[in-house]
């Protein structure tokens, strides 16, 4: 057993890095005013808030006024899907939503709610066996775009790691004048976030996926995109999201993304090497193991497999007892007693889906950690199977 626990669940959440924690604690203690207040303490908080907004906008190649601060990725997804869809229908009569079958539930259930309670038509795009959306399917669903209120396709999937052709979809939507949102929560700090290159009108991020604190995120909303606020009661965030901004957490998010972007290319290369080594070793050493998601168009830190004849719960408990933290897929769906909708969408039969494991790597992951996992997992699988 390793001298300290091996954490391989970075797709669920990441630890707050020391530089970010220091920044956050400083602002909790020293800059505590309400940024809407006009006195000195309020003005200090307002300056810090806008400085953080400028930093994040620059990292996304956006304008500061296009950044809306939220409580995290789930709120950002909800705000984008509901806010754009309802505003578009009110202004143009467009009544159709197009989302992929493997969206995070924050998008999928929001779209279903708009269908069930508000009468929207919902088109769900299929994916192939690797979880990839086909651009021809997007074009077919869009048609001439006249009745489409919104398209939402995630940048990278949290369960199987597959990266979607966001720029191509964005280009297609833009040519038809249809707003396009992407849930980029898993992409933060790992993939390029240039909203101009991606050709998106809305993009969601959550800070705790790139070594920032939980409880804070952002929604990029391109200027001119129709939008109805989902939280009302105050004029914060230019009237688009009511509620006093959590300035220390916002400053910490800006610091975290700034550091992640500085390191993204080199750290991505390092993690990709560890990822590929682990994938190769597990496929070779354990019979009945299958990779889920794309082999190449995949998050650099993401390994997802299914193991024939072995229940995920038993494997996860054994891994935990051996000092390894992993997961069976989406942390938000842990405890669910039905197969993952993502694994169903890629055509995985239920008897295989119950053996899903996800190892997601991060800044503390070493080659020795990977060696330990690849040595231990075959023994665990054998025990669970028997």
UniProtKB/TrEMBL annotation:
All residue ranges annotated as the Aminotransferase class V domain in the record: 6-373
Which EC class does it fall in?
transferase
Q: What is its EC number?
A: 2.8.1.7
* Gene Ontology MF terms in the entry: cysteine desulfurase activity; iron-sulfur cluster binding; metal ion binding
PROSITE patterns membership:
AA_TRANSFER_CLASS_5 (PS00595)
Ordered alphabetically, the record's keywords are: Iron, Iron-sulfur, Metal-binding, Pyridoxal phosphate, Transferase
List cofactor names only: pyridoxal 5'-phosphate
This one is known as cysteine desulfurase
Q: Which organism is it from?
A: Caldilinea aerophila
């Amino acid at each position: 057993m390793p001298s300290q626990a091996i954490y391989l669940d970075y797709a669920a959440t990441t630890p707050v890095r020391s530089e970010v924690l220091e920044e956050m604690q400083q602002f909790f203690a020293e800059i505590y005013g309400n940024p809407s207040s006009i006195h000195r303490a309020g003005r200090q908080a307002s300056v810090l808030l806008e400085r953080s907004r400028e930093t994040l906008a620059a990292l996304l190649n956006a304008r500061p006024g296009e950044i809306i601060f939220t409580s995290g990725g789930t709120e950002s997804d909800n705000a984008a899907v509901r806010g754009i869809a309802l505003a578009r229908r009110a202004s143009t009569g467009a009544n159709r939503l197009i989302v992929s079958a493997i969206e995070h539930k924050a998008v999928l259930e929001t779209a279903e709610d708009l269908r069930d309670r508000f009468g929207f038509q919902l088109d769900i795009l299929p994916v192939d066996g690797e979880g990839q959306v086909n651009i021809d399917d997007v074009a077919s669903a869009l048609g001439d775009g006249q009745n489409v209120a919104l398209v939402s396709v995630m940048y990278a999937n949290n369960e199987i790691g597959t990266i979607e052709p966001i720029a191509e979809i964005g280009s297609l939507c833009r040519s038809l004048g249809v707003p396009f949102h992407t849930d980029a929560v898993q992409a933060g700090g790992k993939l390029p976030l240039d909203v101009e290159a991606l050709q998106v009108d809305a993009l969601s991020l959550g800070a705790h996926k790139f070594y920032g604190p939980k409880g804070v995120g952002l929604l990029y909303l391109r200027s001119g995109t129709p939008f109805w606020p989902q939280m009302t009661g105050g004029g914060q965030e230019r009237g688009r999201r009511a509620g006093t901004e959590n300035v220390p957490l916002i400053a910490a998010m800006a610091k975290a993304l700034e550091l992640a972007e500085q390191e993204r290319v080199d750290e991505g290369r390092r993690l990709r090497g560890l990822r590929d080594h682990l994938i190769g070793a597990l496929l070779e050493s354990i019979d009945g193991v299958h990779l889920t998601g794309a082999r190449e168009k995949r998050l650099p830190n993401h390994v997802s497999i299914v193991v024939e004849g072995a229940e995920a719960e038993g494997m996860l408990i054994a891994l935990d007892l051996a000092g390894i933290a992993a997961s069976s897929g989406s942390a938000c769906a842990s405890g669910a007693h039905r197969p993952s909708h993502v694994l169903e969408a890629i055509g995985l039969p239920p008897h295989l889906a119950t053996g899903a494991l996800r190892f997601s790597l991060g800044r503390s992951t070493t080659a020795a950690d990977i060696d330990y996992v690849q040595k231990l997992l075959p023994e665990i699988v054998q025990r669970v199977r028997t």
